[in-house]
Design brief:
With about 900 residues, this protein is mainly alpha-helical. It contains 49 helices and seven strands. This is LuxR family transcriptional regulator.
Length: about 900
Amino acid sequence: MEWDAGTMVGREHEQAVLSEFVTAAEGRALVLRGDTGVGKSALLEHVATLAAGGRHRVIRAAGVEAESELPFAGLHQILYPLLPHIDRLDDSRRQVFDVVFGRSEGPPPSVMTLGIAVLDLLSLAASQQPLLLVLDDGQWLDTSSIEVCGFAGRRLTGSSVKLVVGLRSDVSSGFDTAALPQLPVTTLSKKASEQLLDLRHPGLDPVIRRLVLDEAQGNALALLELPPHVLRNNRPADDPEALAGYPGVPLPQRLQQVYGDRIKALGDAVRTELLRGALDGVGAGAAARRHHGTRYRMLDAEEAAASGLLDIDPLSGDFVFRHPLVRSTVVQLATPNERRAAHAALARVHRGDVERRATHLAAATVDPDEEVAAALEAAAESVTRRGGAMVAVSWLTRAAELSERPEERSRRLGDAAFVAGHAGLLGQARQLVGSDPAPGGAHSPASVIAAAYAALYEHGDVRFSQRHVVAAIENLRDDSGEDPHEALTRLINLLLAINQYASDEAAWKRTHALLDTLGDRVSAHSRIYEDAWGDVVRRGAGVRERVASAFAALREPEPWDITRLGVAAYHVDILSQYRPLLQRALDRESETGAMATSMTMLHQIMLDQMAVGEWDEAERTGQRCLDLATARHHMLFAHHARGYLGLLAAMRGQSDRARRFQATVDAWARPRGVGFLTQIADAIGTTTALSEGDYEAAYLHAIGITRPGSFTPYAHQAPRTLLDLVEAALHTGRHEQARAHALAARQARLPHISPRLAVLTHGALAMTATDPGEAGHHYHQAETHPAAAALPYELARIRLAHGIHLRHTQGRKSARLTLTLATDTFERLGAPTWAERSRAELRAAGAPPLASSAHPATLTWQERRIADLAAGGLTNKEIGARMHLSPRTVSSHLYRVFPKLGITSRAALRDALGKLPDGQDT
């Protein structure tokens, strides 16, 4: 319920803020937050009126509680009026919207990708007329839509687009952390309350007037609705229950009593229409403007409109609820049978929408029904692919309840538990399998998986997990009945993950033997994981190509499929090319999706950021993962994140911080036998000592991972620390060990396994060669390898060694360029101890103190990458597509680059970059 803008009282401050908001020259966002009924909708109507008077185009939308779990449901409302503009976007942006609006199939876009596309669409729509988006009841928006709105709302500066959102203060939502400016909407003052009451209800009996003011406590909706309720029921003016219903009831519930009396007075047919509309989320309030065909259309409901329960949308002519409290009251007053009948009718209305139909069918069904259970199962699969794993768990659980056959019930409970485990709901996963009444349910594959996930994620108990998963696989192998392929595959993949963390050679050999007995019952993807996650030195030949083929063949993948292949891609060092896919999947899973899987995605993204030199971003990613894992008590993932943060700190020369992480990880992982993490702890020690120049300590840490001249089986850090061990050995006079290790890398054909290992192997062979010609050949191979530019830290270390070699063999002048390139890279990365060592070598080579170019240091890493791509002839749109930025952001970066390089046009980029000493280093 709102009062007309022309008669709004007591909102002078809010109106002034909103007036300035509308007339501001640039785009911006604003959140109005207040209690139910306090007047937010009236203020939203006011700002819409101001904007329309200022020649803005106004688009309204409203969150509805019935859709709060459906990904992008809210965004559909907001963007639907702008659909005609979508066809004017470029192909990549148009494809994003085609997927979101269901006009084509494909994986859902990430928040960033969709957010950038939304910004482009809004800018296009506002190019001829300023645009105002008004969103009421934002707390009921689905999480995916909130994230996109928040992303876009923070980036409206410079546009002609404004966004204003109304939120209830008593309901938490993703907007709470969206970092958008807020305007609190408080209750009316005593004077304003009296003025509003007298304006809308003049001539009230003084006793009624005082009771209404006391009960309303400045709530505008109460001031408008309570007086007619008292008068309509003809109660004595001095009866407190005329207003309160009963003592201690919160104000919104008292108002629901007011609406309840009106609803009860309606005819049965009208109440049925209202119930169907309420259960299907028909809009409420002035912001209820929506497109046709997505909601139940209430018909023949004039009686409800006359009672003040409904309004008529002036654009569509459809009935809408006057306030969200009307909608909730309609549902609360209905009997269970009435609600089930309404849901059944709505399922027929939405027979073409797999998720909405299944939701209504589930609510309409009491007895087991296999058709409904199957529909829910299909809906769960659909919503899981769209980042709704938590919703999928509830739908699969309901599907199990409605299953007609015990085996189907057990299977669906197992599926629910599996998804719950990946969603980070470990307690719920255990409860689900524990609720299976089937014989042997406590020892079923689903039960074993749930228990193993809990033991692994929460406690790092690899031994318990291994033992029970192996036993479950053997039971299925020996089962002469029907082959439960899905359960077997899940157990196999879990065992491989446990083995990866254990990094135990004997356990891996037993697993290989077990999987060999299963033959072709082991999936092709599981075979990839077996080879990549275990001993990539001995089993990694051809894995890179198999991973690429598997990624290329993915169609509507589950989030865990992406993550597992991402881990395999990391082990063969091709993760960078799949980072966009990982980022989209991570964005999709945020808040409502597979949160445990999301933590692994964060690990992978962080590793790639570390590899390519985005160290500040890597720090933020690692901290985000640590916070998430700690909050959910996933101690394995928390220590995993600490390990990578420690490794990053070591690379940056932050020795004390690195050693704290190392000690914490080692103390937790070593007693539990989590070899994957103890190796990372040793790698932290190695890298920290190298950074400090303590080569003896570095050598001792490195040989804790692998001995010189060999690569410890099933030790994933053994090949990754190749260069570390060689450098430490050389600097401590252990030349034979260093050379033996470099030759062992070549003998193991590491260059054929991954691009990174190729660069490291050539670097190690160059550093240990005694023949200058051989050394020069391998230095050239390392520095010109196609993968070298994406490995700036390793490349700079190889260049530093090369510069020292050149100074000793060819003279000081020949070493300066190579040493300058190394110095500039270390400085840009933020590795001060390595940079200082490199500068010392430059001075020894006779370079003046400021020999390194000042220009590269002034360009950020991202600016340099954009400049190089632009110099190569790529357009802003092409650069944006490659770097996942909007063309406008690319343009802004280039305009900052030009003055730094002393140029004024794009045409001069190539020459300017070519003059920089690190021109070939990005």
